Amino acid sequence: MFIDSHCHLDFPDLAHNLDVLLDKMRENQVTHALCVSVNLTDFPRVLALAQAHDNLFASVGVHPDYENQVEPDAHQLVQLADHPKVIAIGETGLDYYRLQGDLEWQRARFRQHIRAARQCNKPLIIHTRSAADDTLRIMREEGADQVGGVMHCFTESWEVAKRAIDMNFYISFSGIVTFKNAVALKDVAKKTPLNRMLIETDSPYLAPVPYRGKLNQPAFVLHVAEEIARLRAVNLNEIAAATTANFFRLFKLPTLVG
Ligand SMILES: [Zn+2]
Ligand SMILES: [Zn+2]
User: Fold this and answer.
1) Which region holds residue 245: left if phi is over 0, alpha if psi is between -120 and 50, else beta?
2) What percent of the chain has pLDDT over 90?
3) Mean pLDDT of 174-179
4) Per-residue model confidence as pLDDT tens digits over 227-242
5) What ligand has the least distance to the C-alpha of 39?
6) Measured in angstroms, how far is the CA atom of residue 7 from the centroid of ligand 2?
7) What ligand is nearest to the CA atom of residue 38?
């Protein structure tokens, strides 16, 4: 079985088609998916998905690309996270690629999320783009290693992966690892220890080969796992078992039966 550790099923393109997407997951042995929050306005919809479906989970957080939000403070995030189906804080982090200028607000927002995660003892979902050094520095300064978490949709170097792993984080690979030109990332997928690896779709974005350019969905996480198995020359079952066990360990979920 496979788990999509990061998707946005509440986004309109996917939400309108939820029943079909859940069927597709079943057909492809994708047993669970984590629906990741990107702002507090839409968080109730993310939580509603997790409440309505046993195999969906939720996180709470405000994405670094969402400007002009009412800034969440740690206390508010902790309160919103106080629900058994809310298993992580995020997505949070830094993105110097999409937005430019004075991004001090991103760093301040990121710090609030790390403090919230430490207060409620839930792991972090971290987004980092063109900002690896600052991301790792703030993680260290705020003690993110105490709760750990996942570097989602990882696209950085092995050096960055190694530093995150040393801080108690997991590395999550998306459909990008299936792209032909993602040579450096394929190398990171080979080097990352099996017990620190997760897989995700980040759907509706970043559909893996052979669906590149199309609307992504959680069932396609299978193709991410297939590519990692190919790169490491191991059986697909080995990747499935490891990434599933990692998901349950990181998010402190009881291991499934049957
Ligand atoms: Zn992200
Ligand atoms: Zn995302």
Assistant:
1) alpha
2) 97
3) 98
4) 999 999 999 999 999 9
5) 2
6) 6
7) 2
Quickly count: other Cβ atoms within 10 Å of residue 219's Cβ: 24
Residue 213 in tokens? 């350019």
Q: What is the mean pLDDT of residues 201-212?
A: 96
CA 258 to ligand 1 centroid distance, Å: 32
202 CA distance to ligand 2 middle (Å): 5
* Over residues 16-26, mean pLDDT: 97
- The reported pLDDT for the residue numbered 256 is 59
pTM for the full predicted model: 0.97
Q: Are 247 and 3 in contact (CB under 8 A)?
A: yes
Ligand 1 centre from 153 Cα, in Å? Answer: 6
How many residues are recorded in the chain?
A: 258
**Distance in Å, CA 9 to ligand 2 centroid:** 10
Which bound ligand lies closest to the C-alpha atom of 201? 2
Other Cβ atoms closer than 10 A to 102: 7
